[in-house]
Amino acid sequence: MFEAILLTVITASTPLVIAALGELVTERAGVLNLGVEGMMIMGAVCAFATAQLTGSPYLGILGGILGGGLFSLLFGFLTLTLVANQVATGLALTILGLGLSGQIGESFVGQSGIKLQPIAIPFLSQLPLVGRVLFAQDLTFYLSIALVIGISWFLFKSRAGLKVRAIGDNHGSAHALGIHVIRTRYLAVLFGGACAGLAGAQLSLVYTPQWVENMSAGRGWIALALVVFASWRPWRVLAGGYLFGAVTIGQLHAQAFGLGVPSQLLSALPYAATIVVLIIISHNRRTTLINTPASLGKPFVPER
């Protein structure tokens, strides 16, 4: 019973972690992309469609990554090249993604999906207690852990990561030092979109292997809150993602046990938890100011 709950928590948490990690890198470069929800749902429909048409869930994963990445480039063109408002553009991207995904996925509604099967690591998957939970998971779980490790090293141990953080903290000074601000931000936005697309692919190929309109169900907004909750630190994103995943699964089990609480209230628990966490964080203004990229959301035009 306990093992089954842990498995469902991991499955529910993985898309949150992946999407939040992508947005973390984007924001570290000084770009605020509120279109995570739109990119996730585009990744979900592209992954499901690709898997159905090719018969391969792994090609479906690639389709989801490409769908989210290409959709993010639209945001990049509007905000980095045309210098449109990042907040308004991100919101518009979400609305566009929800509508466009519904149109693309209309013909796939009701079709049974192709589920991405777990990959059992020899010997490790047979360990008591943790074997099946940690070492017999699907590809997206392993990728989420690899992303946490890789992004932590990239941002805080590599020269390229230092440039990304320098741009996020002061894009004017970074430009004066010869760093290509716009190019770096494009790459960060593309990476964030690819991660959001991968998170969406997990939803339609692992979490619920079928296509349902609006199946992202606000997870993109939770991923955005996770970045703030984690103070722009990858390992904290991992911890926060599993915390929110546990809340999500907890409300489902509470409904199954028939507790005398309205189902609507239980369904709102993950989003209520998000609000509570943000309120708590807002009280520690000093920590927030220290960790927030100083140029976050500010447009950059070299000629000015």
Which features characterize this protein?
2 strands, 304 residues, globular, two-stranded antiparallel ribbon, ABC transporter involved in vitamin B12 uptake, BtuC, mainly alpha
Write the topology of this structure.
Layout: H1 2-28, H2 36-54, H3 57-81, H4 86-104, E1 119-120, H5 131-135, E2 136-137, H6 139-157, H7 159-169, H8 171-176, H9 181-207, H10 219-229, H11 234-256, H12 263-267, H13 269-283, H14 285-291
Antiparallel strand pairs: 1-2
Strands in their spatial order, largest beta sheet:
1-2
User: How would the global form be characterised?
Assistant: globular
Number of strands: 2
CATH topology: ABC transporter involved in vitamin B12 uptake, BtuC
Overall pLDDT score: 89
Rg (CA only): 19 Å
Oligomeric grouping of the chains: single chain
Number of domains: 1
The CATH architecture comes to Orthogonal Bundle
Specify the structural class: mainly alpha
The unreliable regions are none
Strand content: under 5%
Biggest β-sheet description: 2 strands, antiparallel
Compute the separation of the termini in Å: 61 Å
